Amino acid sequence: MCDDGKTILGVKPSLALAICAALALYALPALNSPASAASNDNNVEWAGLFHDQGPMFDNHVEPTSAQAVTLTLRTFKNDITSANIKYYDSADGAFHWVAMSWSSNDATGVYDYWKGTVPASASHKYYRFQINDGSATAWLNAAGTTSAEPSSGDFYILPGFTTPAWMKNGVMYQIFPDRFYNGSTANDVTNGQYTYAGCATEKHAWGTSVVSNVGGCNSAVFFGGDLAGIDQKLGYIKNTVGADIIYLNPIFHSPTNHKYDTEDYTTVDPAFGTNATLQTLSADIHSTSNGPRGYLILDGVFNHTGDTHAWFDRYNWWATNGAYESQSSTWYGYYNFQSWPGTYSTFFGVPSMPKLNYGATGSAVRNAIYAGSTSVVKTWLQAPYSIDGWRLDAAQYLDANGNNGSDTTNHQIMAELRTAVKSVNPNADVLGEFWGNAGPWTDTGDQWDGAMNYDGFAQPVSEWITGQDYSGNAASIPVSQFDSWLHGTRANYPTDVQQAMSNFLSSHDITRFGNRAGGDIWKTYLALFFQMTYVGTPTIYYGDEYGMQGGADPDNRRTFDWTLGSITNSAVALTQKLTTIRNAYPALRTGSFMTLLTDDTNKLYAYGRFDSTNRIAVALNNDTVAHAMTVPVGQMSVINGSHLTELISGTQYTVQNGTVTVTVNGHYGAILAQ
């Protein structure tokens, strides 16, 4: 222990005084390092520094409390004199230091690897690197390299926290059930079948307008898509598209087509089938007789119910008394009334969506939604349905007393909900909806496994490729800003959370990517290349695989065009090729990510995905014309004279001077694998 409180671990006592003295000069010399006596020009070469929590640089991304974590730092060969890990330990609220030692050179002889080990314990830790060359010091953490010590953006060590391997390694397909495929006309909603909130149901022909014939009644428009239709198209989803995870927008009983105003959490909506239909669909998704084993995620709308729910019963549809009908109702405390019955807390002022009041731990609402043995969350996770996870709608708003904020109660609810989910199936996924930095719900290791990646994927991809934000507003960014945006948002999350983030081009809440691309299918091609090779779970909103267009809600929920949903469609064929490539290379799923090239002038971007088995360079061209791209694959330790194969065309390239040059068509990509 030095006088200033810094702890030096793994060092002989006889050397401690010398090390502490060196620390006073802000540079801790490494021990037993052949690089220490090499070139010392008092300048840390930032371009040579690299670390992420990929398998080559972190031996336990998801450690147990008994596993020490050995970290590897890459530098230019003979560039530095010492390196240290500085980590914050939540157990004692203090920083600790670990001296790193030189370990080896890379295959090219251009780089050195330095290693250090953070000792095992159950506490959460956050680390950065101090890198020294004589009197010069640089700092590296997840946010990047700086000359001054950073105060945020560190890497994570969260013992005991894991995210589902199937989510990290899978491809997800999102379906708005009414608009995908009509598998049974027997359950179709007919014209005028019922009236809700002044709107009579309208049955529209498949492929026609999603806009209602009566103003303000778009939620009453039905096309007949159902669970049987999804079941009948599992071969298309699993084999043609190549997705093994299916996420369904809400399927529980509700008077609207979108089902975000739940009437009964225990019953599948009759327009979609029955509980038995869901049981069959879940079993068929899990089956391997129709393609790879699949997984099913349901949309959990737990922030609010519909006003037709028995707990509320605004229209007296139920024999029991709901909170709107009587202050003596069993469920009166489930909601927050400012002035009963007409003034109550809602989801952003929508009267048909009264907000649930979760109260304190052990409350009736908490027990009904997730904590009790017969709760909504646990029931559908258990046999015979055995769903594999929940996507949590409006997840940051669940709290007490009608609040619509991310308060302490919300995080407590999310932690309890996670415990409930994992108690039934430790391998189930908890996916939160959040449109910004979801770090507060993922960085503590006790709430979500991942989030809908609006901020770290959908928005930057749209702005770079289409020149519009995800709402269709003009917003164009150069590739250097795109790369910086991606880097910054990755730094918001632990690595295993990054790998489980839902990366989508479109969703049911934003305009279609195809619309923002102006119908240019080549921009969809380019987006698919990126989506299938970036960090996170590729999530295809039904129809995006062929470039479906659509404006703001409800136009983003058009019916699927089955004349285009075929391998004969070029975009669908490319999707299949890309999902096949992703499934074949773990490096594309859990490997390191390294930026290799940004060219604002020519709109070119290249990055590496690699592990100890494969080195993969992805080259993207966002220009309208073809460009020859010289990609510095040597940065991934690819040696001169070796060969890389472009996985779409099969063309082989030989590495010369640490680079390969590949011609990439406009709005297209290349994937070079070794």
- Given as residue ranges, the uncertain stretches (5+ residues, pLDDT < 50) are 1-38
The major β-sheet equals: 8 strands, parallel
CATH superfamily of the largest domain, by name, is Glycosidases
- Give the neighbour order of strands across the main sheet: 26-25-24-19-16-11-28-27
Number of domains: 3
The tally of strands reads: 36
From the 3D coordinates, which CATH architecture of the largest domain would you assign? Alpha-Beta Barrel
Coarse shape? globular
Distance between the termini: 46 Å
Number of helices: 16
Please give the CATH class of the largest domain.
Alpha Beta
Query: SS-based structural class?
Result: alpha/beta
Topology-level CATH name of the largest domain: TIM Barrel
Describe the overall structure.
Residues 1-37 form the signal peptide. This is Glycoside hydrolase family 13 protein. There is one protein chain. By secondary structure, the protein is an alpha/beta fold. The protein folds into three domains: 8-157, Immunoglobulins (Immunoglobulin-like), CATH 2.60.40; 170-584, TIM Barrel (Alpha-Beta Barrel); 591-673, Golgi alpha-mannosidase II (Immunoglobulin-like, Sandwich). The chain contains 16 helices and 36 strands. An eight-stranded parallel β-sheet has the order 26-25-24-19-16-11-28-27. Strands 1, 3, 4, 7, 8, 9 and 10 form a seven-stranded mixed β-sheet that branches.
